[in-house]
Amino acid sequence: MLDTPTIRTAPMPDAMRVLLRDYPRDAWEDHPGFARATRNWLGAHQGFRRLAATLTAETEAYLDKARDGELYADRLGRAGHALVVSLHGHHHFEDRSYFPELAAADPRFESGLAILEKDHTMLDGVLHDLTRSANRTIQLIQLDQGQARDEAGCLHEHTQAVEALLDRHLGDEEELAVPIILHHRLRG
């Protein structure tokens, strides 16, 4: 068992979700202020969720001996690299550009920003652990299948931690940011 981070399970405080009541998730795409930039941002989030789920599914297939080691190593390397690099770039953009724009437009965003930034820090650690375990698994596939499967068992815990953290974090980020974007007609 790995020392996995404690992922916040409570929703964002109501004070940070005030606009969500006026702009519920199921009405976002029909709103006239729902611009391509917001759609692309949400699309990136869906891509991260899919990549994380792919890592878990591929690891499970390998552990169940339904996936050849070489094929698994290739898929793990490609999907893992894409997830880690893309998430780091995405969060850098949010921290440097997107979040300051939202905070300047609506002070309510500031109250949720500390939580989102804490999530980004936690995610950095989880991605570091995932990368270390994935690299070790890939190396061991070439050297010792038994040890590779043991390491893949550890990796499975990391992939599940990434999925859970992304689910919580991205959902909060979306429900905090998109109502502000729609309310103030930002990113049009």
TrEMBL record:
Superkingdom of the source?
Bacteria
A single Pfam family, by name?
Answer: Hemerythrin
What the entry lists under InterPro entries is as follows: Hemerythrin-like
The Hemerythrin-like domain covers 38-180
- For this entry, the protein name equals Hemerythrin domain-containing protein
Q: Which organism is it from?
A: Thetidibacter halocola
